[in-house]
Amino acid sequence: RRLFFDTHALVCLLEENGFTTQQSEVIVSALVKIMNTNVDMIYKDMVTKVQQEIALQQVMSHIGGVKKDMIILEKSEFSALRSENEKIKLELQQIKKQVMDEITKVRADNKLNLNLEKSRVKELHAQQDRALTQTDRKIDTEVADLKTMLESHKLDNIKYLAGSVFTCLTVALGFYRLWI
């Protein structure tokens, strides 16, 4: 231990100011004990450079472990999103196929109905000219309704696709934001 003041000079100063040699030495020894006790207390609260480096290495290894865990979680979440996206694509393709089948079926039904109406018109001449125009109007209305329904289905499919894509993007961005 080093003292940062001259104890002998302090003893001499105390003697010059009226203390005896024994009193001066007792005061200086008490001051030295107090300083040593204070220094001991300070040293107890301090860490050595080696201890600090060990603690730093432990913290860095924990950070490395957490980083690895985060990378693993990010990859697994990304693959889960990818598989969910594939499922949605397959469902969308199935819906598209069903819509196309329905359109083909409706077209075939309309063609059949149209051919039946044409054959009846040829048989009935004058009276059936009016019936033909009425039938043509019905067919036009049905075709327009079917086109409207088809456009509505297309719009609904586009809405669901857009909603699914935006949902996937929102979830992906949310996870991305959480991990970064």
Automatic annotation (TrEMBL):
Location of the protein in the cell: Mitochondrion membrane
Domain of life: Eukaryota
Residue stretches spanning the membrane: 160-179
Protein keywords: Coiled coil, Membrane, Mitochondrion, Transmembrane, Transmembrane helix
Primary location group: mitochondrion
GO biological process, alphabetically ordered: calcium import into the mitochondrion; positive regulation of mitochondrial calcium ion concentration
Gene Ontology cellular-component terms listed: mitochondrial inner membrane
InterPro entries tied to this protein: CCDC90-like (IPR024461)
Family to which this protein belongs: Belongs to the CCDC90 family.
The protein's name: MCUR1 regulator
Organism: Climacteris rufus (rufous treecreeper)
